Amino acid sequence: MAKPTLAFFDFASCEGCQIEFTNYGDAATLELLKHVDVVEFREAMTETTGGRIDIALVEGSFTREADRARLQDIRHRARVVIAYGACACTGGINALKNHQDDFAEYVYGEHATMPHLESGTARPISAAIKVDYEVPGCPISKDELLLVLSNLLHGTEHVTPPYPVCVECKRRETVCRYDEGDHCMGQVARAGCGAPCPADGIPCEACRGFVDDANLTALEKVLMERAGFSQKRAVGKSRMFTANLRS
Amino acid sequence: MSAFFIEGRDFELFVDAVIGARRVVGPVAKRTKFVYAELESAEELRLDFDVTILPPKKVFFPPSQDLVRFSDGVVGGCIDPVETVLLGVHFYDVKGIDMTDFLFRERNEDWNYLAQREATTIVASSIQSISPRAFWSSVGAEVEPQGHDAFLTKVNGGYLFETRTPKGEALLGYGSFREATDAEVGAAALANAAAMKQCPERLDYPSEAIAEKVRDSFGDVAMWDELAKDCFSCGSCNTVCPTCYCFDVRDAWNLDQASGTRTRYWDACLTREFATVTMAGGGTENFREHHSARFRHRFMRKAAYLNEKLGGPACTGCGRCSQACTADIADPVRVITHIMEVSS
């Protein structure tokens, strides 16, 4: 039986999730290549493909109308489309600009009007095409992506953990950021990453998005009462990766 | 049961000698908190800990535990107990372990837990520092701590070492113990009684009255909604609890796509999907869909449902849930006192 083909595509993003994939290292990558044929991967090879693909991994957010045709072409050619990384799954950090109007001047100064900088609302790729699986995170957890691919190869269902990051923090017995006078959003952030940031003393920024029914009212209260945030900062705090998930 | 005494200067030598012979797990510092960890030397041991982030049940029931490994159609179990001394367990955690011992043994004996439990010698220790949210002096006072093999009490510049089982007695050979005097035994009893008086929080009602009133409050939806208003459904109150024992099982393939592992992970009934079940004919149903129903369920389990089986509440008063809850709504003392005072 022929190995399934795997292709990587990128839209508005830093391509850090592709780089994260290369962090598997030689041994793991070569092992994986026994099971899939990589036919397009801009960060790691020069060849591209115009033909049919079994698994398309799409990184980056959908920010221009021109992206729609390219996304539709990928969808048309691919058996399975996986959105991977925060930008592709929720719009990610790019969606911050959706709530501002002076970002181009702020970032690019006198060059703000250069034509290639023109872009619209940052949206997840699911705003343009049907997505079969999502691997959230900024960057992705490469182990999780591997689990998704393994399940696809075996025809078994992949389940993204639906509970919040606190569960994974406690399982690894990390000292709670709040107990050290810090803040955190692990209570409302979707887990599956293994909670590496709080373990390194860094608050969770909810880069994988929110759990269903996230109690944002309680989050704002806790950020104010326990972390000493102003109301404005408490309300704005969770926008970094979840601007599209907020009103 | 016999009582022995070891001088403070000899105690470290004793611990190092045990470390030389067996795996020893005890409380050690982690940033601003304490955790149970395998000791490399007696210097790491912090018997002055107040409470650990996770309870010592993790020695027998780890947060994630491989159950089965499979490879090319060959399937094997993962039970592989290691002779261990669990050194430095406060009495409330001894009670917690006794409860999980019962729960993992009733009906189906779970040897993934029991094998390591039986390979472990538990040395309890006196409470030298007190956690700010503890209420162990009052909750379930009718339940005796049992199941430990020896009890250490810091007293008179050394430690009183009371053995309770042959496993506990077997440790005597590793240190310079002598028989304790009546005065030392008396001083240890006084020290342990004094710690009980310093417990900062109290639950001033008998367990049976609490169980009845908590059960009766089941239908007071408005009260539970109010109590659970700030609940994140994060499950932290479950994951730090010494008596929680639910787990989820997941399979994962290895890179070779031919072998893999079936692993169990601590689950938490406060999380949203815990009670989601697949229905006959497809689709799912969540039978505790609202967070207040899940919040209420935890109090039913801890204060009422398990009491007949366990002889008292499924709560040891360790205060871990109160500390772990960032919204500070999980404290059993506050919730149960509220129910006792205002619920009709």
Please describe what this structure looks like:
The complex is a heterodimer of chains A (247) and B (344). Chain A has eleven helices and five strands, in the order E-H-H-E-E-H-E-H-H-E-H-H-H-H-H-H. Chain A is α/β, with parallel strands linked by helices and 247 residues long. Chain A folds into two domains: 5-154, 3-Layer(aba) Sandwich (Rossmann fold); 165-245, no CATH class. In chain A, helix 3 links the parallel strand 3 and strand 4 (78-84). The longest helix of chain A has 13 residues, at 65-77. The model of chain A has no long low-confidence stretch (mean pLDDT 92). Chain B is of the alpha+beta class. Chain B folds into two domains: 2-197, no CATH class; 207-342, no CATH class. Chain B has twelve helices and 14 strands. An eight-stranded mixed β-sheet of chain B has the order 3-2-6-7-8-9-1-10, sandwiched between helices. A four-stranded antiparallel β-sheet of chain B has the order 5-4-12-11, with no helix packed on it. In chain B, strands 13-14 form a two-stranded antiparallel sheet. The longest helix of chain B has 16 residues, at 182-197. Chains A and B meet through helix 2, helix 6, helix 7 and helix 9 of A and strand 11 of B.
Give the strand order, joined by hyphens, for the main sheet of chain B. Answer: 3-2-6-7-8-9-1-10
Characterize the overall form of chain A: globular
Radius of gyration of chain A: 19 Å
| Distance between the ends of chain A | 49 Å
Tell me the β content of chain A: 5-15%
Q: In oligomeric terms, what are we looking at?
A: heterodimer
The name of the CATH architecture of the largest domain in chain A is: 3-Layer(aba) Sandwich
Largest sheet of chain A: 5 strands, parallel
Helix content of chain A: 25-40%
| Residues in helix, % of chain B | 25-40%
| Unreliably modeled segments of chain B | none
CATH class of the largest domain in chain A: Alpha Beta
Structural class by helix and strand composition of chain A: alpha/beta
H-E order of chain A: EHHEEHEHHEHHHHHH
Total count of domains of chain A: 2
Beta content of chain B: 15-25%
Beta-strand segment tally of chain A: 5
